[in-house]
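Q: I have 363 residues here and want to know how they pack in 3D. Can you give me a structure?
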Amino acid sequence: MTPAPLRAVLLVTAALLGLLGTAAPAYAHGADAPDGTDYRTAVTGITPARPGLTVRAVEAGARLELVNRTGRDVEVIGYSGEPYLRVGPDGVYENTRSPATYLNRTLAGDTALPASADPAAPPQWRRIDDDQRVRWHDQRTLWREPTVPAPVAADPGREHRIRDWAVPLRAGGEPVELRGTLDWVPPPDPYPWWVAATLGALLVGAAGLLPGGRALRGVGAVLALGGAAAVALVLGRELDAGAQGVAGVLLGLLAGQLWPLLTGLGALAAGGWALARRPAADFVLALAGACLTLFVGVANLTVLSRAVAPVPWSGGTARVLLTGVLVAGVGAAGAGLLRLHAAARAAAPRTLAGPVPSPPGHR
C-alpha cells in the first residue's frame, strides 16, 4: 500500500471527527433524552387497573409512554389539576391552556409559559397525533434539583428510594392513578472499564506489527464482534426509546440512528473483508475502526459512568458492549494504520532505488 492511501485514512478520520459533532444529536432518543443517568424511574401500576391501558418509562426514564387500547378517552392531568393530554380512538390531543403542555417540552422544564397558559381556563384541545400512544416528560417522576438528594449526599455508596410518585389520570371520566418509584442508583466506577478498553485496544492494535494473514484475520474477527456489539447497542437504544414491532424499530433506526447503525453494519462487513484477506484489507480495517470508535464508541461514553443506560438491559450489559466497541474500533484502526505504514516502508526502497544501472560495456 502506497503512502497515498495512508494519508487518505488520516484525512477521512479527521473529517469524521468534524462530522461527529453534527451526527451525535441525531443519535438521541428524543430532543433531550439522556445518554445515561443515576436515577431509575419505574412504573409500578395503574390503580384501579384498566384493561388496554398501559404505561411505561422510556428513554432511560426521561419520558412516560401511555398506550390506550380501551376504546375510551384517557386524560393525563397536569400539575395544577387541569386536563393536559387526551388519548383515545381519535388520536392524541394536548390542551394548549395547560402549563404542562409547555413545561414538558424539555427535560429541564424551563420553557417560558405563554400568556394563554391558564390551568383554570376551559381546555382548548389541539390534535398532535393520530396514534393511541403518547410520550411526555413528567416532572413528578424525575429529580430536577441541581444537587443530589440529602440521603444520597450522606451515603452515596448505596441505593436510595427518593420517592414514590403518582400521576393522576382520568379514564372514561373516572379518576385513575398511575404510580411509580424514583430511585438513586450508585454510579459505577468507570476506571476498570477504561483500563479494560485501553489494554484490549493496545493488544488488538499490536497485531498490526505482526506480518502475515493470521494477524489480519484475527483483527478482522475482533472488528466483526465490535460491529455486532455496536448493532446491539443501537437496537437497544431504539427499543428503550419505545419502538415496538419490526416496522417501528426499522423506522426509528432510519429516522434517528442511521449513522450508528451503518457504522455497526460496516464494521461487520469490514471484519468479514479482512477475514477473507481481500485487497486493501488494511485500509478497510483502519477506516471501519475509526468510524466505529467515533460514531458508536465516543457517542456512548456516558454509559461507562452512569448506572442507568438508555437500553432495555442492565447498565452492566451496556458497559460490556461499549467496551467491546472501543476495543474493536480503536484496536482495528491502530492495527490497520500500522500495517499500512509497514507496507509503505517496504515499498519505499523499491520506489526510490530507481532503474538498475547497466553493467560496464553493455550497449
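Q: Anything worth noting?
A: The CA atoms of residues 214 and 275 lie 9 Å apart. The two ends are 36 Å apart (CA to CA).
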